[in-house]
Write a structure and sequence with these properties.
By secondary structure, the chain is an alpha/beta fold. It is about 35% helix and about 20% strand. The protein folds into 2 domains: about 100 residues, Urease, subunit C, domain 1, CATH 2.30.40.10; about 325 residues, TIM Barrel. The strands form 3 sheets. Strands 1, 2, 3, 4, 5, 16, 17 and 18 form an 8-stranded mixed beta sheet that branches. Strands 10-9-11-12-13-14-15 form a 7-stranded parallel beta sheet, with helices on both faces.
């Protein structure tokens, strides 16, 4: 169908405080043609009724390390855009082009290329080591020339090297994000970094800090326009990696057997509790600090760090949303962080992340109203990517068909190397 109308019970446009009832969304040639009263749809336009459903912009995940085995799962969860924040440069550029050409392959991809690291690369395949700041500057120039959407700095960089890399990115007008190691978030903000992943370097988020301590920190982040992508779900899962409940998560059927094997044998599952317990208590502190950041107006993007243990591609976005609401955010605030806010951060806010005329026809219909009860975001009825409609049963068949294929991509190879010591 090149032109059709979706008619749900309600439509949330990605920005408003409440969804709108009685309207339909007309799609033509992969774009949203109009949002108009359902009663006014021309008779020659085929209509797809979605009773009991809320139609939302396609969800986004700001922190993924993509594997080619993940595409159907993201779509099944209603995730239509991802940002890959660390991968082999040639490989991820090829995947980005493949998904641009064929929306059935999976979500749209934005990418950062290699994890630009210090003198030692923590991840040997996805990462790249640098002897000094000049070498790091050269990598930034190379990646920008190749057409990355952003650059990602990694944990083994010292402040001098990070500052050099950020300076080069800013000269080239390129967004930069980082997983910090020993560098504090305050120093990274002063150096001009745009975004912090995992709340790394954010001292007040990792302890039982006072509101005053949080506000001093948040004031500095606001001053420098910092963006936070908390990825609460990865810290929660790594802290509880051996919890039995995850073994019975029915969504594991969306995970490739090779990745399930990595999760089942993940090192910290079988080590002493000292490897897990230090991650359990800070998650509650992170939630408290996240709520304060949201209340103070700091920009929050939603990311997950898929495919680390128990992070089901796409479906872990639902988990992260639920954690935000558990932290005290309103459902609409959490949903914005996974739609219109992410789109703005990605630099695609004029064409994606909202349901409005002229925008990409990337949408998800869910049973119920997640703006009232966030858990209903998991009731995915239909996903639309570039105007093409996908249902779960079709996508699950594709996932099952891939089960016998070998997962041979950078994130899988790096995780296997990590597993084998």
């Amino acid at each position: 169908m090149s032109r059709y109308a979706l008619v749900p019970d309600r439509v949330w446009d990605g920005s408003a405080d409440q969804p709108q009832a009685g309207v339909a969304v007309v799609v033509k040639d992969g774009l949203i043609e109009a949002v108009k009263p359902a009663a006014g749809i021309p008779p020659d336009v085929e209509q797809r009724a979605l009773p009991g459903c809320t139609l939302l912009p396609g969800l986004m995940d700001a922190h993924v390390h993509y594997s080619s085995m993940m595409g159907p799962a993201f779509l099944a969860a209603g995730v239509t855009t991802i940002r890959d924040v660390g991968n082999d440069l040639d490989w991820i550029l090829d995947q980005r082009a493949r998904h641009d050409a064929d929306p059935t392959a999976g979500p749209g991809i934005l990418c950062c290329g290699f994890l630009l690291d210090g003198t030692t690369a923590h991840w040997k395949i996805m990462g790249r080591a640098h002897a000094d700041g000049e070498a790091l500057r050269a990598s930034v120039r190379e990646e920008v020339k190749r057409g990355v959407n952003a650059v990602k700095f990694y944990a083994n960089l010292n402040l001098e090297m990070l500052s050099a890399g950020v300076d080069e990115a800013r000269k080239l007008k390129t967004f930069c994000t980082a997983h910090l190691g020993a560098i504090t978030a305050e120093d990274a903000a002063r150096a001009g970094l745009n975004e912090i992943q995992h709340l790394t370097g954010c001292g007040p988020a990792w302890k039982k800090s006072s509101t005053e301590e949080q506000d001093i920190f948040i004031d500095l982040m606001l001053k420098h326009g910092m963006i936070m992508t908390p990825t609460l779900v990865v810290w929660d899962r790594l802290g509880r990696v051996s919890d039995l409940v995850f073994e019975f998560d029915s969504r594991r059927e969306w995970v490739h057997p090779c990745h399930l094997g990595i999760w089942n044998e993940y090192k910290s599952r079988f080590g002493p509790p000292e490897g897990r317990l230090p991650l359990q208590e800070p998650v509650a502190h992170m939630k408290r600090c996240l709520k304060r950041m949201q209340d103070r107006g700091l920009t929050i993007a939603l990311g997950t760090d898929t495919p680390f243990p128990h992070l089901v591609p796409g479906f872990s976005v639902h988990d992260e949303l639920a954690m935000y609401v558990d932290a005290g955010m309103k459902p609409v605030e959490a949903l914005r962080s996974a739609t219109s806010v992410c789109a703005k951060i990605f630099g695609i806010g004029s064409k994606a992340g909202r349901i409005a005329a002229g925008f990409q026809a990337d949408m998800v219909a869910v049973k119920g109203n997640p703006l009232e009860r966030i858990n209903q975001i998991a009731n995915v009825e239909l996903t639309v990517r570039a105007g093409r409609m996908f249902r779960s049963a079709e996508l699950l068949g594709r996932i099952r068909g891939q089960a016998s294929e070998q997962a041979d991509d950078p994130i899988t190879r790096d995780l296997l190397r990590f597993l084998r010591g």
